[in-house]
Every structure is written in C-alpha cells, then in structure tokens.
Amino acid sequence: MPDPALAPAPTAAPVPEIADPATWTGRSAADVARGFLGVDYACPACGRRHAVSTRRLETRPGVARDLVPLLADLGLSGRPLVVFDANTRAAAGDALLAGLDPLAPATHVFRRDDLHADEAALGSLLAALAARPAFLVSCGSGTVTDIVRYVALQAGLPFVSYATAASVDGFASSVTPLIVDGFKRTYPGKAPLAILADPGVLAAAPRRMTAAGFGDVLGKVTALLDWRLARDLDGEAHCPTIDALVDKAVVECLALSGALARSEPSAVGTLLDVLALTGIAMQLMGTSRPASGAEHQVSHLLEMGDIRRHRPGSLHGDKVGLGTLAGMGLYLRLFGDGNLPAQRPTMPARVWESEVRRVFGPQADAVVANNPHEPLSGAAWDAQKRRLAAALDAYGHGIVQGYRTLLPAAAGMIEAIGGPVKPSQLGYSEQDARDAVGFGKEVNAAKLTVMRIAERFGLLYEFAEAAAADWPG
Hints:
The chain is of the alpha/beta class. It has helices at residues 29-35, 67-73, 86-100, 119-128, 142-155, 199-204, 207-218, 220-234, 240-255, 257-261, 265-285, 294-308, 316-335, 349-360, 364-370, 378-417, 430-439, 450-456, 460-469, and strands at 40-42, 49-51, 56-59, 80-85, 106-110, 135-140, 159-163, 175-180, 183-188, 194-197. Residues 1-10 have low confidence and may be disordered. The strands form 3 sheets. It has a 6-stranded parallel β-sheet with strand order 3-10-7-6-4-5, sandwiched between helices. It has a two-stranded antiparallel ribbon with strand order 1-2. The protein folds into 2 domains: 17-261, 3-Layer(aba) Sandwich (Rossmann fold); 293-469, Dehydroquinate synthase-like, alpha domain (Up-down Bundle), CATH 1.20.1090.
C-alpha cells in the first residue's frame, strides 16, 4: 500500500487573471464581477482562500424566457418552489412562471405588509418545503432573497435569485441578516447559483427602490475606510483585491446617478450588476465586512426600533444612505483638520448602561453582556492612537478630505434619484436619529467602525446630538 506521506501534495487552484486589479482597466464592474463567478483560489494578496459559488449573472431583457436551458446549464432540474411577496408576484410573476412552466413550478407568496426576514417568515417558508422542491427561486429584492437564502442553507437546497428591483447589495451574499428575538444579526446563508434580472422589470420598480440600491452601494464609501482602519488598529482580516473590487463598484455607481434619476433601464440594470459585485465581494471574503461598516450599524438599529415599536419599516438602502452621510460627517468632525482630535471625557459605564437599556429595551441584556462598558483607554488606547495616526497619514487624510465635496454631492444624488437625506423623511424623530448614531455600534460589538473610534475620543455623543438636529449633507 502506498505510503500517504509520499503522496503528492494537492495542487492549488490557479489564481484567476481577474484577481489582479491591473487587469480591470477598461472593464465595467459587471465584467469584473462575472470574472469572479465560480472561482476558488488561494489569494496571493492576503493569503486567504477565496471562493464564489455563484456561477451566473444575467441582466438582460427577456431573461425569464430562457430559464429552462439556463437552469439546465447550472445542473438544476426537477420542480422548483418559487418564492414571492405580493408585490413581486404582481411585478414579475407571470413572466417568471411562464419561463418555468415546463418544470411545473410550485409557488409560495408572502402576504404580510410588514415582511421581514424573521422567525415567522422563515417558518412559513420551511413549511412550504412540504412540496419537496428540487431547488428554490427567490423573486424579489432584499427581504425575500434573505429568507430564501437562509432556508436554502438549512434545507440543503440550491437556489436562484430573480431580482425585481436594484434595491440592495445582498443578492450574491453568502451571509444573511435576520431579525431573531427582535435583534438584527448576521447568520450564515447560501449564495445563489445564479442572479437573473430583466432591466425593464428593474426600471419599473418604484423609484425609491432604485434610490435605496444607490444608497446601499454608496455605503461602501465609509465601509471601506472603516475596514482599512480596523485592519490597522485591530488586526482585522483584510484583502486589498476585494477592497479594490468594492471601490470600483462605488466609482461606477456614482457615475450612474444621473441616468438612475431618469430611471433608464440600462442604468438600473448596471446598478443591479454593481450591487451583485459587492455581494460577490462578501462571498470572496466570507463576511459582510467589505460592504458593511458604521452606516449599516445605523440602519440596523433604526430597523430594530421599527420592529420593536411595530412601526412600518423603510427600505434598508434608504437607512444605509442616511448612515453613510452621517459616517462621512463624523469622519470630517474627527479628522477633517488633518490631525487627531483632542481627547475628551468618555461616557461613564453606569450612564452608558442606562442609555443602552433605554435604546434597546427588551434586547438590552444581550447588548450589555456583549459590549465593553467603557471605551478603550490607557496604554492600549495610546498604542491604538499611534497606529491610527500612521494609517491616516498613509491614506486616511486624503480620503477624509475627499468627503468635503463628496458628502453634499452624494446627498444631492440620493435626492435626485428619489431617496431620503434626512431621518425625518422616513418618519424618524430627532431622538431616533441621535440614538442610531450614538448606539448603532452596540449592534455588533466586534466590528470596529468610525463610531467606536469617536466614542474612544469622547466625541461620539456630541456628534450624535449635532447630527440629530442637522443631519450631514
């Protein structure tokens, strides 16, 4: 019998050419995204293994007509279960079901006006698996896709995403934000084998959904800087190739703003591709970090408050856009003069806990248990400030100075497309806004963002007061 010790080592998958940002010159974000589909390789830039299980990205007119051969190319056969909400069933259901007709699809329609990716929705879809489908098809945008993504993982079923609005970046993600016991956290999920969309369907969606998609991509402006600082201050895992991929998506999205304001189908289709690209970046990294920072913490806390108070929710990307404007404003407040700010007193532990209990209500015990009661201080904070100063000198100050012009320009772009730039436009009070900026960081204690840095300097709550009265932008 051969000695296992003498067996040749397994050959590593070759690094794809597309993984070198030098090859992206002249390529669109969609072209770059498609180059990463189905990859699995050891990254020379960060040393991690990157993989993408999504294999197709098709954004073109009439894609629903070609579903059966497309699915066969992916190895999918048998009866699918197609999952809608009432709006997406009306918007795209007839064409989608006609394309799937040879496979005799079963359907499941969520009829809730307040649909969230929560325990009730997950249980409803799990019960629908009694139809014993061979695979799942999500027809919708963020919420429907997240529900299907999680259930697909738990049931061991493949799934395909048919997008009806370019409203969120999670189509290609392999992680799922769920509301469990009223708390929004990220759980493992399954990435779709394919993301399919018809630009005409996307452009026919309400303009506010396109604005939300723009806001979700815009969030990467601050999320990327948060991620780089987390790498340099806390040693968080980071990949420069994935960073560059997301940065490309942001640049292309900003250039689309005028055409998106006119609801041009080609532009909305490109926005969907850009959103898919940022989801692919999350697959590559295996976490949401390339696409989620302080701006998502603001969004998550606002959403949790809506659910706890039984208020009608707003679109995820709307809140991310608001969080991005606040994040840029906070960076300018901290580092806009080219220096580290002077240290201020920080919030005492007893005051912090009292505020957390007020803000989080029934979820407060978990928040108190999972977060530091006082900001980092002493020698550890001094060492971190030295690393922060070096990072800002190396790249941060240039990015922050760019926010001086980008902040008002971004607010104008959101408004032109039809999205909100003030919390009050979504029905939030000044107290809601103040709490979102001041305590959004507690939603994910492990994620270092500009809000946690501002807390350590003793400046976060002062900024939250100012932002609530006059939101940046």
